[in-house]
From TrEMBL, chain A:
GO terms for biological process: intracellular protein transport. It is a single-pass membrane protein. It is found in: Mitochondrion outer membrane. GO terms for cellular component: mitochondrial outer membrane. Its main location: mitochondrion. Keywords: Membrane, Mitochondrion, Mitochondrion outer membrane, Protein transport, Receptor, Translocation, Transmembrane, Transmembrane helix, Transport. The chain crosses the membrane at residues 59-76. Residues 1-23 are annotated as: Disordered. The keyword Transit peptide does not apply. This is Mitochondrial import receptor subunit TOM9-2. Belongs to the Tom22 family.
UniProtKB/TrEMBL annotation, chain B:
This is Mitochondrial import receptor subunit TOM40-1. It is found in: Mitochondrion outer membrane. Belongs to the Tom40 family. CDD domains: Porin3_Tom40 (cd07305). It comes from Gossypium hirsutum. Pfam families: Porin_3.
Length: 105, 313
């Protein structure tokens, strides 16, 4: 708690790498190098993952809207064409059958 | 027995002469090449597939035929139109206009006129004087001064070549010539001179066409290089790609698109290297009734344009 004499202005609190003697175990753990490096790594990972999520989101949006404009009408139209063809085939088979049936009777 | 042998020997030379005859037919007859397509339609397959007339807003077209040859057309358009601006932002101003038109179509003569409510008048004339010579003219008059222009073209069609001479206002003169070199390949050249801007230019083009594909290339001294390739995958589907390079301004654009011509509809889609995708659908709802949907998304400029239209008659 006893602050060192500040020399003209604000100085950053000292980050001691070696554990201070006479402090409790929790303080010793939280000021150990492993913990500080872990904290730095976690904040870096959060930063990178946020950026990755944002760029993935942007890419997904662009891919999604492009797919919607380019391919969804195509799928719909090809489906309709297939239905139309099936209907025609059905009608052709229907019209094809009757002329032979009355001839038999 | 003796009679069989000579007949056997004469049968084989007859077959050999038949295959030789078909081989001679397949060998190209350079005196009878087909007539090439006109110079301005050199890249027409690629243009039709890759550059549909997308629009933004509502479009309604009604064409009424009064006669075998004469028809009137009424057309309404409501939507934002882009104003070319110097800054990167696009400025859109909502406009609406009604257009009245009259068409007279004869085998030899075609006259088309249009009047719009914003004061523009368009006229187009195509007159086939003889089998080989035809005259085309078009003019556009506007309210704004110095924006009206007109152009006259004289086309002469020869046995395996076409030549064209055009004159426009503002001392614009141009000439082009296209020649069939083989049954599949045709080469063309053009030259133009614009008096008002004191510019002149020269251009060359080539087009290679088979049943399944069309490849065309065009170079001009104005700095434009345009290449296109269209492949007809089946009778309903064709895929097209296009490459444009301006070596003065170092502008490059490549695009790939498809063109599906189904029984009830025609769907064209394309994606660009500028990050722009467009789709254009014309669907036949009923006899003479077509619905048109147009979409254009520009991801890089964040400009989205959607249009809806109806065509009757």
């Amino acid at each position: 708690m006893a602050a060192q004499p500040r020399r003209g202005g604000i100085s950053l609190p000292e980050r001691s790498s070696a554990p201070k003697p006479h402090s409790n175990i929790l303080a010793r753990i939280t000021s150990s190098p492993i913990v500080s490096r872990g904290k730095q790594a976690a904040s870096d990972a959060a930063f990178v993952s946020k950026k990755l999520l944002r760029s993935t989101g942007k890419a997904a949006w662009i891919a999604g809207t492009t797919f919607l404009i380019l391919f969804v009408p195509l799928i719909i139209e090809m489906d309709r064409e297939q239905q139309f063809n099936e209907l025609e085939l059905q009608q052709a088979s229907l019209l094809g059958a009757p002329p032979t049936a009355p001839a038999r009777s | 027995m003796a009679g069989l042998l000579p007949s056997g020997t004469t049968a084989i030379p007859a077959e050999a002469s038949k295959t030789a005859h078909t081989k001679a037919e397949e060998k190209t007859d350079y005196m009878n090449l087909p007539c090439p397509i006109p110079f301005e339609e050199l890249q027409r397959e690629a243009l039709m597939s890759l550059k549909p007339e997308t629009f933004e807003g509502l479009r309604f077209d009604f064409t009424k035929g009064l006669n075998q040859k004469f028809s009137l057309s009424h057309s309404v358009f409501m939507g934002p139109t882009e104003i070319p601006s110097q800054s990167a932002e696009t400025i859109k101003i909502p406009t609406a206009h009604y257009e009245f038109g009259a068409n007279f179509i004869d085998p030899n003569l075609m006259l088309i006129g249009r009047v719009l409510t914003d004061g523009r008048v368009n006229a187009r004339v195509k007159w086939d004087l003889t089998d080989n010579l035809s005259v085309k003219a078009n003019a556009q008059l506007t309210n704004e001064p110095h924006m009206s222009h007109g152009m006259v073209n004289f086309d002469y069609k020869g046995k395996d070549y076409r030549s064209q001479f055009q004159m426009g206002n503002g001392a614009l003169f141009g000439a082009s010539y296209i020649q069939s070199v083989t049954p599949h390949l045709s080469l063309a050249g053009e030259v133009f001179w614009a008096g008002q801007h004191r510019k002149s230019g020269l251009g060359y083009a080539a087009r290679y066409e088979t049943d399944k594909m069309v490849a065309a290339g065009q170079v001009a001294s104005t700095g434009m290089l345009a290449l296109s390739y269209v492949q007809k995958v089946s009778e309903k589907v064709s895929l097209a790609s296009d490459f444009m390079y301006n070596y003065m301004t170092r502008d490059v654009t490549a695009s790939v698109g498809y063109d599906y011509i189904l029984r009830q509809c025609r769907l064209r889609g394309k994606i660009d290297s500028n990050g722009c995708t467009t789709a254009y659908l014309e669907e036949r709802l009923n006899m003479g009734l077509n619905i048109i949907l147009s979409a254009e998304i520009d991801h890089s400029k964040k400009d989205y344009k959607f249009g809806f239209g109806l065509t009757v008659g």
